[in-house]
Design goal:
heterodimer, A: 442 residues, alpha/beta, FAD/NAD(P)-binding domain, Fumarate Reductase Iron-sulfur Protein, Chain B, domain 2, 5-stranded parallel sheet, 17 helices, globular, B: 433 residues, TIM Barrel, Alpha-Beta Plaits, 2 domains, 8-stranded parallel barrel, 4-stranded antiparallel sheet, 20 strands, oxidoreductase activity (chain A), DPD_II (chain A), Glutamate synthase (NADPH/NADH) small chain (chain A), iron-sulfur cluster binding (chain A)
Amino acid sequence: MSNSQLTPGIVPARLPASTLAENFTDHEPPLDRHEARVAADRCYFCFDAPCMTACPTSIDIPLFIRQIATGTPDAAARTIFSQNILGGMCARVCPTEQLCEEACVREAAEGKPVEIGRLQRFATDTLMAKGVHPFTRAAPTGKKVAVVGAGPSGLACAHRLALKGHEVTIYDRRPKAGGLNEYGTATYKTVDDFAQAEVAWLLKIGGITVKTGVTLGRDVMLGDLQAQYDAVFLGLGLAGVNALRVPGEDLAGVQNAVDFIAGLRQAADRATVAVGRDVVVIGGGMTAVDAAVQSKLLGAENVTIVYRRGREKMSASAYEQDHASQTGVRIIYGAAPVRVLGEGKLAAVEFAYTEDTPEGLKLSSETFTLKADQLFKAIGQTLAGAPEGLGISGGKLALQPGQRIWAGGDCAAGGEDLTVTAVAEGRDAAEAIHASLMGAAG
Amino acid sequence: MANLTTNFIGIKSPNPFWLASAPPTDKEVNVRRAYEAGWGGVVWKTLGSEGPPVVNVNGPRYGAIWGADRRLLGLNNIELITDRPLEVNLREIKQVKRDWKDRALIISLMVPCDEDSWRDILARIEDTEADGVELNFGCPHGMAERGMGSAVGQVPEYIEMVTRWVKKHSRMPCIVKLTPNISDIRKPAEAAKRGGADAVSLINTINSITSVDLDDFAPEPTIDGKGTHGGYCGPAVKPIALNMVAEIARSRETAGIPISGIGGVTTWRDAAEFMALGAGNVQVCTAAMTYGFKVVQEMISGLSDYMDRKGFTDTSELVGRAVPNVTDWQFLNLNYVTKAQISEADCIKCGRCYIACEDTSHQAIEMLPDRTFKVKDDECVACNLCVNVCPVENCITMVQLPKGQVDPRTGTPVGDYANWTTHPNNPASQAAE
């Protein structure tokens, strides 16, 4: 093939294979032993540490860093995994600059927090590399629980339930387990098939059966699960994507960013993944940044993120925005799409500048047009309907007491839509299920 | 710029920073490099008697402890005195001294405890034109088992006897180096003075085992599965050395004897502290062994700037200046009342002051819901632990209550100076009435 960055249209292999390989290496390479010891030495072992409070899974960060500093990374990993069984993934994808590291007292003192995320990865990688599972299952309870969704919340819930001796079956509509860990995060953050390796390692606890390719409401009904299991956990995620609601949205070349990201993650060869010469991404979250950055890394000539509000309102962190800029992505703030233009296929997108008024965001009369052969929609995901018998409230599943149904992750109310929040909710739901099941038994 | 030139028992040097007798001063090449870097003087590594030189181990001879970021805090060694032939050392000393006349060059000596041995070695070194001798009565390992080093330094009568021999058989200024491995440092200092020593230097290294290999179950440094105690030095020993220097400086029997201060001097500030407690100069080893000879340049500029700030033009104005303020506990003012004060602007909210006080002290710090920390004056005994555990310098300070103000902890107003000797709880003070 002889495509280049200048080839018009949506085409694969814009860059040589060697460049592609280089572009998709580990975004933040792991710390080696020496680096980890140096980084760990900076931790002050704060009392009631702000980093720990900022962590949705409340990992005892000062303790695990002290364990690294004293040469016991396996103990550090156990400290992490006891709170967050997906601590390996969270170390890679957590927006630490908005969570633990933002709260670090050394951020206040020097503007340079302890590298908590990278230290967490050092500890978890060290233990996981040994291929052993750090926990042992309790004696079987005879209770069975169905978990729908093999994403972060489902996996965390299943693991905690299995740990307590319950028998768990996980159902997932996709061919592989992992949810957004497998299909939704940037390729350069989870190199070497880490999501699948993590699932395999997690399942070593035993007592968990995974059934993939099973869709709730089609292949299996919620009522049947309720009949067959002692409890049901729903970690469905958000399968729907918000529409732009502007003319021309159905033109060829307009895609969901999440599908592009998933396709890239699943591609055996990145040179087969097609990308436009002029890519426009609409949105302000991590999905927008991941789609834009990876488009650039695949060889798109011009990549532009357009976000309707200002920089500080963008849900992707300043760190992620800077990362996008450094990769060569242009970010335009304060503009919203009004029309998608093209004859049969996408050619350009027309935007209007916005004004943030007390009455809300308003489009101004001033417009501009960006040339585009590929447009990614990244303005948020939505619950793709509720299973039978359940309602939706505020865009999230509405549960009724007494149904023996629990929920967690992006489909459930409460918390931000982050991997680490999903893990916390799955884990806590498992504790609630356990209390409910054992309370009933006793 | 302040004048750092010192005259220590008649030995002149351009600054008070000498390298101690140790591995960095064992050879001509090292000593020349030291002088080039700016060191004011060198105490040549200890020479022994003529004859086959001592031998050293061929495995590791140093052990260490570290602080954060693997900063070396304490070093221990099991190296013996020079293992090079006497005539080689003497030839090199003579050559170096000829080329570096403005720098001090002292020869450290350790020979068997008989008068002939001392007379012989003193005769051998006379020709080198070195500025003085230092008697190594301190080395705690290897030589002590042979009746030398600290085996002499732990017996005041021997110190006095050997010092007398040295003064009898040599006109060179004589410094007696003291071992800290003794219960009362004043006794050997008094003995040295009685023997006619011109000065004492202290401390030599402290008996120590720095660590244990937890796989081989042997002390470090480990030689073929075994280890032995070595001499400990470096920043970790400075407080011990400062106290011993101060004890000699303020003791009636030894007050006024020139002191060369040794023990963990790492920066200009350490040196100034030793000098304020009575040392006429300092000797350095571990800092040079950790960072190389260039560290002396920071010591020179730092001490000079400090003296300028204080308006001192000569090091003699600094030497001994803190000695009158070293006293016994019983004379401390019990009516000096302070309270910790936390600067909210400087606080980084780590909470270590809080948990240290709450878990291990007086429950005198309150953690407010917004994670600000406040001292409870009615509980604070002014112990200073919060100051010491705070990672931010000067964030927590101790503020004195003015006379007459009521201490919220005791409910009594701050009074005039009063110490334990007159305190009503002191049985001795009551008996005196």
